Amino acid sequence: MNGRRRAAKRGGHRLDAATLGFLQVIWRLEHAVERASKRMEDTLGISGPQRFALRLIGHTPGVGAGELAGSMHLHPSTVTGMIQRLEGRGYIRRLAHPTDRRRMHLHLTPAGARVTHARPTIEHAVRATLARCPLAKQRAAAELLERFSRELMKL
Fold first, then answer.
1. Residue ranges of domains in the chain
2. How many C-beta atoms surround the C-beta of residue 13 within 10 A?
3. How far apart are CA 58 and CA 74, in angstroms?
4. CA-to-CA distance for 90 and 103, rounded, in angstroms?
5. What is the pLDDT of residues 13-38, one digit of tens each?
6. Which fold does the domain 47-118 belong to in CATH?
């Protein structure tokens, strides 16, 4: 058995060129998203994750905090803090569930709707990238990233 196969059988301790290249792209992407989010916060007063939350609330009016946390793949306590900040800025309002006072439904305010249309944002970069990429490549990239996400969740 050659060295590469032995390394793969031992858990892949060697870093092959494909793995290194993929990791470099992932780290560059993570850094770019963080920088874009910081610029959004500086220019728009709202971070990338906060804007994403607003977009999801606008797309699904009345969504609950738990559902929002699930859609964003964040811990509910993280989303609770985000909801409090967004509500404090007047971007969302919470309405009590008609029969269960413990549950709240989230809705955009007019100010929240305005900030969801502001530019430049991470969403606009995604849209521009997808517009220049064939559908088959979009699907392949999404599938690859989803598989990678699932592997990371096993760690």
1. 47-118, 119-155
2. 8
3. 18
4. 20
5. 778 899 999 999 999 999 999 999 89
6. Arc Repressor Mutant, subunit A (1.10.10)
